[in-house]
Amino acid sequence: DYKLFVILFGLGCSTAPEIQAISIISSVPQEGQTLSADKAIRIQFDQYLELSSVVNSGATLVSGDATAAIRLSYDPVDQALLATPTRNLRVGLGYRFAIPTDDIRGLNGSLLKTPFELNFKAGELH
């Protein structure tokens, strides 16, 4: 009986804690809103991200069939990914910003819970 208790107790204690998936808690702009054509897209996460996963992510910004070049950076204070277009967006056009799930990683190895997609319109320069 004692040996069985030790084995069962050991199995119960050796379970690794579950890693919580990354979630997005806010975005600027929000879905369907307008973003100034010269501003960065800002996606805030619920945990700290691994910097190399942000810079090397497959995040994309497209309008129709055209892809807009973006520079990705990370704001660790707000736990936010910044996607800055390398040129001003075209005012009045609709854009889609997307982040695949397997690219962004948390410091604890967690992954984005679901793919992220944000549709917005480029507005006047501010």
What is the strand tally? 9
Average pLDDT works out at 87
- Beta content comes to 35-45%
Rg from C-alpha positions?
20 Å
Number of helices: 2
Say what oligomer this is.
single chain
N- to C-terminal separation? 74 Å
The coarse silhouette is: elongated
| Share of helix, binned | 10-25%
Largest sheet: 5 strands, mixed
What spatial order of strands do you see in the largest sheet? 2-9-8-4-5
- Structural category: mainly beta
Model regions low in confidence, pLDDT < 50 over at least 5 residues: 2-10
Order of helices and strands: HEEEHEEEEEE
Word description of this protein:
With 126 residues, this protein is mainly β. It is 13% helix and 36% strand. The chain has helices at 2-13, 51-55; strands at residues 24-28, 34-36, 41-45, 60-63, 66-67, 70-75, 80-85, 94-99, 116-123. The strands form two sheets. A five-stranded mixed β-sheet has the order 2-9-8-4-5, with no helix packed on it. Strands 1-3-7-6 form a four-stranded antiparallel β-sheet. The longest helix is centred in the N-terminal third of the chain and has 12 residues, at 2-13. It is elongated, with a radius of gyration of 20 Å. The model is unreliable at 2-10 (pLDDT under 50).
Entry keywords:
126 residues; mainly beta; five-stranded mixed sheet; four-stranded antiparallel sheet; 2 helices; 9 strands; disordered N terminus
Secondary-structure blueprint:
Elements lengths: L1 H12 L10 E5 L5 E3 L4 E5 L5 H5 L4 E4 L2 E2 L2 E6 L4 E6 L8 E6 L16 E8 L3
Parallel strand pairs: 2-9
Antiparallel strand pairs: 1-3, 3-7, 4-5, 4-8, 6-7, 8-9
